[in-house]
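As a warm-up, study this chain.
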Amino acid sequence: MVSIIMTAYNNTLYIKGSLNSIIESCGGIEYEILIGIDNCRKTLNYLDSIKETLPPNIKILFFNKKPGTYVIRNTLALESKYDNLIFFDSDDIMKDNTVTDVLKNLNSHDSVRLMLMMFKGKVPNVFILTHQYSFGAFAIKKNVFLDLNGFEPWTCAADGDFIWRLEENGYKIKKLQTLSFFYRRHHNSLTNNPETNMISNIRKTYHNIRKVKKINEDFIKLSKLTTSDFKSIDDVDDVDNIDGIDDKFILSIIIPTFNNVEFIKECLSSVIKSVKSLNCEILVGIDDCKKTLNFVEKEIFDSRIRFFYFSQNVGPYIVKNTLVKNSNSKTILFFDSDDVMCENMVEEILRMQSFNDFVRPKYFNFNGKTPNSDVVSKEKLFGEGVFSIKKSLFLSMNGFEGWRTTADTDFIGRLYKNSRKSINTPTVLFYRRLHQNSLTQSKQTGHGSKIRSNYNNLIRNKKTFGPLPYLCVSPFYEVSVGYIKPIKPIEVFDEVKHKKMVVNEVVKKILSNTNLSKTNIDYDLINKVTQKQGVYVPVNHIKPIRENKPVDRTKITEIKKDSLSYQARNFGDVKKSKKSSSPNIFSGNNKRKGGQSL
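Now compare it with the structure written out below.
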């Protein structure tokens, strides 16, 4: 009786061979195989096409929020029906006696580690490299696994962390002395791809976390078992959201913070005032600062605000990358924890974001405590660290560089180089606080600092402006704080949708009134009103007769006799002749013959 747990992502080449080897190894033993697909439609379609050829005790489950290998393993372990678990990878080949050997040793041990042999290519006995004990493929009793609350929800290296915790807690671990399976080396595996390989930055970060755990003796068990929602393969259809985006939020506001207890509450209050009753999520990442962590744990916040703690100080941009990846809306707004939002900021951002790839809001600098009275300057400034963007675009560019500063300038530059549609807001939407501890003002990272100068040189010397090699993220855990419920959310006004609705209604009304009603026109009444009897009547087709006659000229003469000009001409001076009585000697007409003048 054993539950075999495997995860799959972008694997249509090797998974069938892996399943066949597991089924053969189980032989006559009662078993189940749980396959967790990590939000990959390609793998889902492939398994759906071959599911009729698979045994009925193989369950295929689809995770649409891309939680990662270790969260899927945790979830499937909780869902398993047997007391013995074997974790196995979907691209490896199991030997025919492995399951039998594992179950024999689990009777007297808590966990069994499997010996592997690495190979390349399609056939295990070709290009064999070496053999060693696996971290990712091992067997364990279910109650032991759940007692330690399973794996850390990391991108990689969580299996090594779990084995280490087993050893530190004194569980009985057996290492099989015979070869158990063949481990396939290929460029898409966790240990070989550039994002998570053995020399990657993120794997080094996880190893450093484990060192901190050991120093603090924090290896008993995790605070909770991290799991994720899933669907059976039969319940997934083409309209399912497989991009990990939950449309119940119209906006995700991402705020990194470090050593900021003086301004963060004012910042979050301004955010809530701007959000009003809209259904947004505010994700705050605390970058390894116990002071800020202790502060927020004692406060009460709007329930739309969630806090996440990063155990390693990775800088604001890796925090932003990580929170975007774990956000639940299609639109992202980055904001800083020491700035203050205007009340119309969120509304304006949502309106403009509908027509653009990213939006840069205008801001004023201020110092002190009151933005309105302490404004430093009113020049036109637009945010590089504060802007909104489509989540899909941000992730397609693999987000920010994992730098300590200036990564927002680099990212905006890459967007412009790729001709992405943007807009700068015409009005001021937030106030940017100037203080000595901010990234742009401190001696370590501010303008004029050596590190900022180095990063600016990197930006100037860049030759490519496309996506980064990978999205740089970091492990975290959610912080438990006190919450109050917000007022009931309302739907945001969608200007594009509204215009389409109005146009459709007008077109529908026009099409429905094709037979216009005929109105009888009273032409006689019109003639009477206009005092013109000669208006053309289209019904009778009669040429109009002009009735207007000139007034009698004798009457006109009588009228003129009463005028002032007439009386002046008859009773005043005699009108002079137009011709002058004296000759004009300067006139051209008085020249003598021969062309000489008098």
